[in-house]
Amino acid sequence: MKKFSFRASGYILVPLFLFIACSSGVRPQSSQSIVPSGSWSRGAPLPISISEVAVAATEDKIYVIGGSTPERVDQPTNYEYDIASNTWRERAPLPRGLTHAAAVSLRGKIYVVGGFTESGHGGAVNLVFEYDPATDSWRSRAPLNSPRGSVGVTVLDGKIHAIGGRGVDRVTVATHEVYDPATDRWSLLAQLPKARDHLAVVAGDAFIHVIGGRLNSSAENVDLHDVYNPATNSWHPGPPLPTPRSAVAAALYQGKIFVTGGECLNKRTYPQNEAFDLKSGTWTSFAPMAIGRHGFGAAAVGRNLYFAAGATECGGGERTNELLVFSLP
Fold it and tell me: pTM value?
């Protein structure tokens, strides 16, 4: 993997910084903390430049599924990245092309949930597909209760939660459904306090954290941080995201929920890389990406956090085939 130690393709060396913990007013925050900023490197590029992808990992392999290219808004592509060999290969395509779908891994399978089939967040679907890497095959599973794209998904206690998104009328929703693979059924749970899409949904420490997103357009980004308690089927507010953003990539890595990238600020994408520490309940800024992006995905595997694909300009311009790797000591 190639370190960002020189100026090339717009990348520059990122120095270490001193960061101040963010005060939220919800719970006591540390007044100051000195943290390692982390380092960025590159893995082998994807075979295709693509954005609005779904990303998940299982068995030391990362899958980049669906997405949008200039040739087709709802690609059915399925690319597998082998971490050990730093190589990509094309696998069985989605049964139906999708953009803005969500993906998550559970018990060795990859589940792809929802998505759009038309440009401009149009053609929302309720489709759910299960991919088996061992047999390189797909099968359809029970659909969502209602069509929605740009939905957030995560796994908690062996079940898949699908939260927020945008329906067939392009209006954001607060819907919260849970899928039990044992029964192949979706059930409705307590709604998200504020409807939004293009949001981060990550489980950690027996709770689900729903962070950021947008109310409508990327000009309506929010710093909301809602925490779901499955024991009481209820929500409570968490410390807000320091930089309001949507269309981010997010994952649990080293006990922290990293929320990276997003769109759109003064017609530019966000390079921010901020993390919520589940133990201390504080947000910290880490080394940012050299170039902002959105419409990409994240997966934590081993000692690294991987970010695949996306677009470096707002609205899908300048799609990329990059695989970025973030590491903490």
Answer: 0.89
